[in-house]
């Protein structure tokens, strides 16, 4: 039972994002952190009952971050507007934090590129929380440390 008490869980988590030290703020949703091993299949001549599955490379999905609209959206606009004048790939750090500020997990993403920012849908007939979504592409994870 003592081991279970030492485990931090990711309940009520927010995701704090920084791009090369520039704070983009906290997000309430994060999806797409992961990777996939791309397999190539090879059929061996004379062996009809078996197909080789050979790993070839890693593929990384885009990461989508969402949150209610707020003043922090200005930091996203500043970061994305830098792409117009020329862009160098940067490193992103995403930290999953509990409500009391304890870090549950951290990911460092290599060669981050902004893909899309989607602002709120302003519809007067449906009152709801206005949200924004930031989608970023990356080229792998950096080692912790």
TrEMBL record:
A Pfam family it matches: Phage_T4_gp19
Alphabetical list of InterPro entries matching this protein: CHP02241, Phage_T4_Gp19
Transmembrane intervals: none
Descriptive protein name: Phage tail protein
Gene source species: Nocardioides humi
């Amino acid at each position: 039972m003592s081991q279970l008490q030492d485990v931090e869980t990711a309940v009520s988590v927010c995701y704090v994002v920084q791009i090369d030290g520039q704070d983009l703020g906290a997000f309430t949703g994060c999806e797409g952190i992961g990777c996939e091993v791309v397999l190539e299949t090879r059929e061996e001549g004379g062996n009809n009952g078996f197909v080789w599955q050979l790993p070839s490379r890693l593929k990384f999905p885009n990461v989508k971050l969402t949150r209610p609209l707020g003043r922090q959206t200005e930091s996203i606009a500043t970061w994305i507007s830098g792409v117009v004048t020329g862009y160098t790939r940067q490193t992103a750090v995403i930290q999953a934090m509990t409500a009391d500020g304890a870090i549950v997990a951290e990911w460092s993403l290599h060669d981050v590129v902004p893909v899309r920012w989607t602002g709120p849908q302003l519809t007067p007939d449906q009152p709801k929380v206005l949200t924004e979504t930031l989608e970023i592409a990356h080229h792998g994870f950096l080692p912790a440390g």
